[in-house]
Design a protein that fits this description.
Two copies of one chain form a homodimer. Chain A is of the alpha+beta class. Chain A has helices at residues 21-32, 63-72, 85-92, 101-107, 110-119, 133-143, 170-176, 232-248, 282-285, 290-298, 325-328, and strands at residues 13-17, 36-41, 54-57, 75-78, 127-130, 147-151, 161-164, 182-186, 192-200, 206-208, 212-217, 220-226, 253-262, 265-272, 311-318, 334-338, 349-357. In chain A, strands 9, 10, 11, 12, 13, 14, 15, 16 and 17 form a nine-stranded antiparallel beta sheet that branches. Chain A has a four-stranded parallel beta sheet with strand order 3-2-1-4, sandwiched between helices. In chain A, helix 1 packs across helix 10 (290-298). Chains A and B meet through helix 1, helix 11, strand 16 and strand 17 of A and helix 1, helix 11, strand 17 and strand 18 of B.
Chain lengths: 358, 358
Amino acid sequence: MTDTPTMLQPGATIGILGGGQLGRMLSVAAARLGFRTHIFEPGANPPAGHVADAVTTAPYEDEAALLAFAASVDVITYEFENIPTQALDTLEAHRPIRPNRQALAVSQDRLVEKAFLSDLGLLTAPFAAVDDEVDLAEAIEEIGTPAILKTRRFGYDGKGQSRLRAPEDAAAALADMAGAPAILEGFVEFSHEVSVIAARGIDGEVACFDPGENVHKDGILATTTVPAPLSAAQRTDAVLLAAKILNALKYVGVMGVELFVTPKGLIVNEIAPRVHNSGHWTQNGCAVDQFEQHIRAVAGWPLGDGKRHSDVVMENLIGDDVLRVPGIARESGAAIHLYGKAEAKPGRKMGHVNRVKG
Amino acid sequence: MTDTPTMLQPGATIGILGGGQLGRMLSVAAARLGFRTHIFEPGANPPAGHVADAVTTAPYEDEAALLAFAASVDVITYEFENIPTQALDTLEAHRPIRPNRQALAVSQDRLVEKAFLSDLGLLTAPFAAVDDEVDLAEAIEEIGTPAILKTRRFGYDGKGQSRLRAPEDAAAALADMAGAPAILEGFVEFSHEVSVIAARGIDGEVACFDPGENVHKDGILATTTVPAPLSAAQRTDAVLLAAKILNALKYVGVMGVELFVTPKGLIVNEIAPRVHNSGHWTQNGCAVDQFEQHIRAVAGWPLGDGKRHSDVVMENLIGDDVLRVPGIARESGAAIHLYGKAEAKPGRKMGHVNRVKG
C-alpha cells in the first residue's frame, strides 16, 4: 500500500510515550489501521501494555532504554504532555515526535499557554505570573478575587490548584504551590463549558469533531454530551478558533480545546496536545474516532472527516463507579470501555460508558 | 465489581484458541471490558498477538504448552472450529470451553451439522453422505445435478468443494476429495443469502443482530449489507430459527447462521460456532458489536441488546484490495479495519471497511 510519501505503511510501528488509558485506546486504534505499537512507560503493568505489541518499562531518565525504544519504532507520539525535556531531546534526535515540541512547550506551562493564546487574539481568563508574594499581591490587585492560583506546570484534574475567595487567602494559596512557579487566573462567568476535539494532518488539513458539553465533578470530568447546546455561530467560532491554534503550532495530531461559553464569546480555558477525555464519545458516535484520527495524523494518513452519526452522552467511571458496570451492561445502547486498572482508588478513572442515542 | 456469581471480573484472563483476525478483534473487545487475553496459535507472528497480553506459539499437539495456557487463563474460547479433539480434551479438563464441545462437534462435520438441523425441523439443502463411488452414484440418483460434493470436515471459503454439473462429473469430483469422507449437497434456488449473528448468554438469554445480506465473490464473502431485504415475517423467522439452534446446543457465545432466502422459506446453509465475517458490520452499527457480545457471553456477563443505530455496508479487503486503503481513508463515513498481516496474498483477507450510512 502506497500513496503519498508521507503515509506510514501498515506493519510499521508507532511508539507511544505513556501507558495509561489514552495510550491503551491509541494502541487499539493503531492496530485497527494495521500498525504495531510500542509503549514506553515508567510504571509497571500499564493498561496500554495489555493491547500493545511491545512494552518498555523504564524511567524517562534511562537513556539506553529511550534509544532502544526509538530504534524500534517509526514515529513517536504521546498520551500526556509532561514528558521530561531531556527524554524528548534524546528521542527526537532519532525519530519524529508528533505532535511537535512547540505544542508541548506551550501546553506544559500554563503561563506560556495563556500568552500564546492571547497573542493569537483569542480570549482567555485574566492571568498573571506569580513567583512570590509580591507578584501575588500585584496579581490580586490587577485581577481581583475570587481567583485561582495554579502551578505553571504538571497540573491536571484539579491538582496543583488553590482557590482564593478573598485577598486574605493569598498566603495559604501560595503555600499550596510549595515554591513552584505559579499563575493567578481570574474567574470567568460562563454558562457552560464545551470542548472541541480538533485534528490537523501532516498536509495541514484540519478536521474537528462536534463540540461536546462537559460537566465536571470535584475537578474531574464527569460527563460529555454531544451535541452541545450552542448556536450555529458559536459552533463555527469554536471550530475556527481551534483551527487557528492548530495552524499556529503547525500541529500534527489531535488536540483537546476546552472553552467557556460566555455572553462575550468563547473563552479558551485550556488546550491539551493529545487525545482528550472529552473526546471519548467519538468511539461510538463517529466512524473515525479521536484515537484513530490522532493515529492517522501521526502516521501521515488523510484525516477522517469526524462526522457524527449518533448523539452520545459519555460518562466517566471514577473510583467505585466501576461497581455499577453490571447494571450498565444491561442498558440498551450503552457501550462500556474499561481500562484494565487493578485497583479502584477514589478519583481514579477506571473506565467510561458511551450511551448512544439512536 | 460483582453481580451474579457467573460474571468474570475485570482483570481476569480470557484464553483464545487461534490468532487470526477474529482472535484479534475478540482480544480488543475483551480489553474494552477490562479483561486480559492470552492467544494460543501454532503459526508465528499471529495478528491477534499485536493486541494481546500474552501469546503462546505452539502446535495443538504440545500438551505441556496447552496445560500452561489453561493454567494462565480463566475461561477458553476460540476463533475457529477446527481445533483438534485431543487438544480440546486436555484443555477442558482444566478450564471451561465456551461455546461448548457439542457446538464444535456439530459444526466440524457438515454431515452431522445437516442432520442436526434437519432433526430440529429446519430446512436445509438436500444432502447425502458420500464415502465412495457407490455412495456418490446413489446420492446423485436421489439428489440429482447440479450438486456440490464437499469434504465433511475442514472446509472453509469454498475450499474442499467440487461442483457436479452433470452425473458425468462424479469421478473427477470424488478425486478432488482425495479420499476424505464427503457429503453431496443439492442446489437450492434462492433469491439471496442472509446471515443472522446470534448470541446466547450463560443464563440462556438470546439476542440477535439484524440480519445482513451477504454477497460472495469467488467463494469468499465480499460484502454484507444491513438492513437486508427481508419481510417482517422473514426477519422474525430468521431470529426464531437462530434461537432454536442456539437453545438446542445450550450454546454460550456468538454464532453465525447463514440462510438462503427462498419462496419456500429460509433454508439454513451453514452455522459457524464463533464470531463471523458477516457480523463485522456490528463494529460500526451497534453500541455492542459481535466481538464484545461473544466476550460478554463467554465471561458470563449479560448480553448487549444488539440494537442497530446505523445502516452499514461491510466490504472485505481481499488480497490486493488493501492497496485501495489510501483512497478509502479519504471517504466520509468509512471505518477501516486492517488485520496486521504482512503479505497480501490472493484470496487472503487483509481487512474490511464498514461504510456507515447516517
